[in-house]
Amino acid sequence: MIGPGGLRPEDVVDLAAYPIADPDDPARAALVERLRAELERDQVCVLPGFMRRGARERAVAEATAARPLAHHIRDRRNCYLQRSLDPALPEDHPRNLLFDTSSRMIAYDLFPSDSPLKTLYHWAATRQVVADIVGAEALYDNADPYQPANMLCFQDGDSSSWHFDSGNAFTVTVMLQAPEAGGAFELVPNARSESDPNHDYLRAVLLGERPQDIVEVAREAGSLCIFRGCNSLHRVSPVRGDTLRIMGVLVYETEPGVVGDPEVNETVYGPRVALAG
Ligand SMILES: O=C(O)CCC(=O)C(=O)O
Ligand SMILES: [Fe+2]
To answer: Cβ distance 159 to 152 under 8 Å?
Structure first.
């Protein structure tokens, strides 16, 4: 159903370039195969020009309108998203290397239900193509009031420090607006593994001693990106200029009915989450 002013998925996704609608289309199968291999090899795959310009501009207008209500995430944290030090460990242990981070989070409930980003998120074909690329048997929409789809804004001086994503095995983002300068998405693929926390290596990366290992992932406006951020260290370099970097973040789950932890939600979406109880 499309409400007044509503968008159809084909208004949002460039289906000529990315034929994801028909599960039996051989072009879809070829696309999935290519991206699956890319993700496996690089821990990241990018689909340039995935979102159509009109849809993107509408999403940018929605983000701009909601921007005053965004929660300013401002933190000094380590790459495990912790804020406190462990005095039992050396000063230069990754656990004890804290870096500044600053971004502005627009929660799911702060933009319209007919938003291009929500149209993209809730479309079964999006969910299915992401599942096929990441190799998940099935994916489900997140059921939290705040988490399912977000618009994360970085203004001049904002950045996201080196971190691993916790929880989800993969992350899906769509660049809604690129900044004038800075705001690069940088990744160190497989910086650790399940069996090896790789602390010495992480220390070297975090202290700037392994610049050759950092991959800059090209992100033009409209590009969709799927990455495995749980073992691949990543950051967003400081944004420069007056144009907001606006990133849509889509959260899919491997089981239905997933909601966020209230304490985590409060740090990401702000004090109003606790007030809403
Ligand atoms: O904004 C980005 O490019 C990546 C943000 C990020 O680290 C994430 O969504 O996990
Ligand atoms: Fe991340």
So the answer is: no
**What pLDDT does residue 260 have?**
94
Residue 17 to residues 47, 50, 158, 225, 257: CA-CA distances in angstroms? 9, 8, 33, 15, 33
* pLDDT tens, position by position, 225-256: 999 999 999 999 999 999 999 999 999 999 99
User: What is the distance of C-alpha 41 from the center of its chain?
Assistant: 19
CA-closest candidate to residue 231, choices 171, 185, 153, 156: 171
Nearest residue CA, atom 6 of ligand 1? Answer: 235
Nearest-atom index, ligand 1, CA of 229: 10
Specify the pLDDT at position 5.
63
Report the pocket of ligand 1 as residue ranges, CB < 6 Å.
Answer: 152, 160, 165, 171, 173, 185, 229, 234, 236, 247, 249
> For the CA atoms of the chain, what is the radius of gyration?
19
- Calculate mean pLDDT across residues 142-166: 97
Mean model confidence pLDDT for the chain: 96
Atom of ligand 1 nearest to the CA of 225: 3
Of the pLDDT bands very low, low, confident and very high (cuts 50, 70, 90), residue 13 is: very high
Task: Give the mean pLDDT of 51-62.
Answer: 98
Q: How wide is the angle at C-alpha 14 spanned by C-alphas 12 and 15, nearest 5°? A: 110
The mean pLDDT of 25-50, rounded to a whole number, is: 98
Q: Which of 185, 186, 225, 237, when mutated, tests ligand 1's pocket best, judged by the most ligand atoms within 8 Å of its CB?
A: 185
Instruction: Kindly give the interhelix angle for 26-42 and 124-134, rounded to the nearest 10 degrees.
Output: 50
The structural domains of the chain, ordered by start, are 9-276 (2.60.120.620)
Among the atoms of ligand 1, which is closest to the Cα of residue 154?
Answer: 1
Question: What is the 160 CA–ligand 2 centroid distance (Å)?
Answer: 8
The residue-averaged pLDDT of 123-128 equals 98
